[in-house]
Amino acid sequence: MQIEIVPHNPYWKLIYQKEEQRILRALKVANISSKIAHIGSTSVPELSAKPTIDILLGLAKEATLDDCIPVFKKLGYIYVSKYNGIMPFRRFFIKIKSKNPLQKWSQKEIGTEDRMPLRQTYDRVFHVHIVHEDTNFYARHIAFRNHLRKQVEDRQAYEALKLHLGALNWESENDYAQAKSGFINTIMKSLGFENT
Predict the structure, then answer these.
(1) pTM above the 0.90 mark?
(2) What is the pLDDT of residues 74-101, one digit of tens each?
(3) CB-side exposure of 151: number of CA atoms within 13 Å?
């Protein structure tokens, strides 16, 4: 499969802000304290991206990680637990929209043996990554976003790489993401982060 990469859309910021307010209201009701940030390529002006908005939550208390699950299910998100084994410090959620109004996704959780909704059938509207605010995962994502916002040459090189890789055929979206890791790790090393 190829990966859809589209030109930057200035409305992505507004879409994020609207969802951020919904999330913050729900977290307040649940008494969960968190930082929230727009991350990923849709958060970087002038950078082409997959049209999925990535949201990062940095929890003040790690103990509230699983408390977020019912909150996000109520907000219409699907809990993706299938990656908990390799990333036990993160909870991951997706919000999808069917391309066919007669077709609806009924699962509320995607476990280890379950398949992800196919992008050919469902648009991924949001990805939400929830971690403790003191994790390397949180710091790396914020630092990479900030770097691309400031450094035009690196942003343009990253965009060229994404467009090239997006046009290739991939077994899965994770393979595409892995192919970008060399570039990302080089940037992160220059920012003082160890490669993971």
Answers:
(1) yes
(2) 999 999 999 999 999 999 999 999 988 8
(3) 15
